[in-house]
Design a protein that fits this description.
This protein is mostly helical. The protein has a domain of 69 residues. Helices cover 88% and strands 0% of the residues. It is built from three helices and no strands. The longest helix has 72 residues.
Length: 100
Amino acid sequence: MAMGAIFAAPMAYLAASERLINRRTEDQSQERVARHWERDHLHAITALEQITAARRAIGEAEQALSLAVATARSAGLTWEAIGQAAGMAQQSAQERWGRR
């Protein structure tokens, strides 16, 4: 048996193994790049969308709170009661929602 034939099978195995390792390494590198890109770009976009949605929700909540205070005042509730319900002092509630 020639020496070339003896080494041909193990060399072919090593070459195939090396190709598989290179492919896995390349796949892992691509996955790593994709994760970094997602973190740097998509997460930032998602965070900005969340900020916009939260700001919108705050605006809607402020409108609902102002309407509730106007309704409470129309029903004759005191600034003290409104302030307590809003988690603030009577004077703060009156300054915030009272007539200017």
